[in-house]
Write a structure and sequence with these properties.
Largest sheet: 3 strands, antiparallel
Radius of gyration: 21 Å
Shape: globular
Number of strands: 7
Strand order of the largest sheet: 4-3-5
Distance between the termini: 17 Å
Order of helices and strands: HHHEEHEEEEEHHHHH
Helix content: 40-55%
Number of helices: 9
């Protein structure tokens, strides 16, 4: 999971989202706003809706690889995910900054689960609402879930490139950042789904082969167009977190150290 690029919407689309949000915010009670948020989002999040057609196009550009999920980077992204759940935060139902494209296996388990750190706390508290619970505003606090729209997940997480291809928290256990890393990994099941480490290992081999091919072609005097194609293939390949970690960890990995020594420009791709 990496920080997603900032892709702007047109002023027209942003204005329309704001108008819809104003309509939800104008309702008198919190339960009314929650119900309206769910109903109006469902009605408007359609392919024929001009504003949401633009939203979907922008989210597609934002995606890694061939429209891969903004969380796991593996499965096809086909759902507009509210990072702050609309059932809890109706005031963000039409906020462009609260959207990303997610896959069902990530969005499903997350659903309306959300956790916050109350003021001064180092452990997150779940604020998600059960189906039969009273519809009341959640308590205040800072979010536990790492937000790839506004944060770099790799300041919290590190991917093991040598053996397991599992994510690990970077911060010390007991710290708030460690708790955020663990919460994100658990709620999205980024280590629990067995196929994900396998896919990351395969991506590692693919990136390594592409970089090796680039070095070989450059040494053979290949034209810039051929080299540019290899660079583009790396930049658009699946599981970009693997590539970012190869750049970050190359000094600790002998084979990568040699490859990046031969192509130091690749550290900037």
């Amino acid at each position: 999971m990496i920080r997603l690029p900032d892709v702007p919407l047109s002023a027209t689309a942003l204005h329309q989202l704001e108008r819809w949000q104003d309509g939800v915010d104008a309702l008198a009670s919190y339960p009314e706003r929650v119900e309206a948020a769910k109903r109006h989002f469902s009605l408007r999040n359609k392919a024929k809706n001009k504003t949401f057609a633009e939203v979907h196009r922008a989210l597609t550009v934002m995606c890694t690889g061939s429209r891969r999920c903004g969380y796991c980077e593996d499965s096809a992204a086909d759902e507009v995910e509210h990072i702050w759940p609309k059932d809890l935060y109706p005031e963000l139902v039409f906020a462009w900054s609260n959207y990303l494209y997610a896959c069902g296996p990530c969005n499903g388990p997350k659903n309306n689960r959300f956790a916050l750190f109350p003021r001064g706390a180092r452990k997150p508290v779940e604020v998600g609402r059960r189906a039969d619970a009273p519809i009341k505003p959640p308590r205040q606090g800072t979010p536990a879930l790492i937000d790839p729209r506004h944060e770099d997940p790799l300041t919290f997480l590190m991917l093991d490139l040598k053996e397991t291809f599992l994510f690990m928290p970077i911060a010390a256990k007991g710290s708030k950042d460690h708790a955020r890393a663990e919460y994100t990994l658990n709620i999205l099941r980024l280590n629990a789904r067995e196929f994900l480490p396998v896919a990351r290992a395969e991506a590692f081999s693919g990136y390594r082969a592409r970089l090796s091919e680039y070095v070989s072609l450059r040494e053979q005097g290949a034209p810039q167009t051929a080299l540019a194609r290899r660079i583009h293939s790396i930049q658009r390949a699946a599981h970009p977190t693997v590539w970012r970690e190869m750049q970050r960890q190359h000094r600790q990995h002998p084979e990568l150290r040699n490859l990046f020594r031969e192509a130091p420009e690749a550290l900037g791709w």
